Please model this.
Amino acid sequence: MLTLYLAHILSYMHDRKKDFQTIIELIKSAKNIIITSHKSPDGDSLGSSLSLYRFIKKINTNVLVCHPDQSSSAFHWLVDIDSIQLFRENKELVRSTVEKSDLIFCLDYNSFDRLGSEMGEIVQNSMAKKVLIDHHQNPSIPAIVSISETSIASTSELIFELIEQSGLGELLDAEIAKYIYLGIMTDTGSFRFPSVSSRTHEIVSSLLKTGFQHAQIHEAIFDANSLDRLKLKSYAIVEKLEVLQELPVGIIFLENEELKRFNHQKGDTEGLVNTILSIENIMVAALFVETEEGVKISFRSKGSYFVNELASVYFNGGGHKYAAGGFSAESIFLTKERFKAIVLSGFYDSI
Ligand code: 5GP
Ligand code: MN
Model:
C-alpha cells in the first residue's frame, strides 16, 4: 500500500517537474505577466497570488496581480495587499493590463466565470498564454501548461512545488514562505482537513525554516473579530440556526436587514458555516447570506456527504467535495425553501 502511494507521488513529481520547468521558461521569456485569482479572494487565492508575485519579481519580469474584487479585511495587513489591482474598482486599468499581457496565471480557480462574467470574458478573450495552477475539479481553462491537482489541499502548495522543483528553491525567502503558509493554513482549516498529507507537513517544515512568525499569521486571521462581527455570528447561532428534521443538515440564513443591524462588513460571516458543521452528527452545513446581487451560499460537509454536486447542479456554483459554494438570484426565502425541498426529497438518501 505504502509502496503504491510512494510510487504515485514519485511519478507525479516526475511528470510535474517538466511542467514546472516549462513555467519558469515562460516566466523568463514573457514581457508582461498577470496573476489572476477568483472573486472574493480567500487565503489561498491571496497566498498563491502573492507568493508567485514575489517569486516572479525575483526572476526579473514585469508582473502584476489582478483580482476581480477586494478580499475581506482579515487580509488587509498583508504587505503586498495594495499592489493588487482590483477589477471592480478600476475596470479600464485591468482591461488594458490584461490586453497588454502575454502570460496570464490562473490561480485557484477552474473556470473563467469564477472571475465574474465581465473580467472572465476579458481574460478568456485575451491572446496571452495561460498557465493554470489549481486544485478544483473539472478545469475548463485552455492553458499552455495546466497544473490541476484535485488531491492537493491548496493552490499555495503547488506554488511551493513550482519554486522547489524548478530548481529555484534558494529564492524562497520568508515573505514568499509566509504567503504560501497563509494559503495552506486557510485551505486546510489549520491543517486538519482530510486533504492534508505528509507532503503538506514537509512543505510547511521547509517554509518554517525561513524563520517567519507562523503564530502571528494564525492570530491575524482567526483572532481578529470586530465586536460587531462576533455579535453577528453569535446572533446567527442563537437565533437563526436550524437543524432539518431527521437529516444531518444544519442551516443558517441571514437577511440584509440582520446584516445591517450588526454593521456587516465583507468577510464577517467567514467561518460561520464551519461552526454549523462543528455540531455533533451534523454532516452538511449551509449558510445563506443575502447580498445586493442575490444570495451567496456556502456549503461544508464531512464523511460520505459531498456538497460539490449540490452546489453545481442546483445553485450555480461548485467547489470541492467538502467545501463548495453557490449563488441564487431568487429571494433568500425561496432559496432556503428550495434547498430544503432538494435535501428533504432524498438528495442524500443513497448514503
Ligand atoms: P466559500 O464557502 O468559502 O465561499 O467557498 C468554498 C469553496 O467553494 C471555494 O473554495 C470554492 O472552491 C467554491 N466556491 C464558492 N463559491 C463558488 C461559486 O460561486 N462557484 C464555484 N464554481 N465554486 C465556488
Ligand atoms: Mn484553494
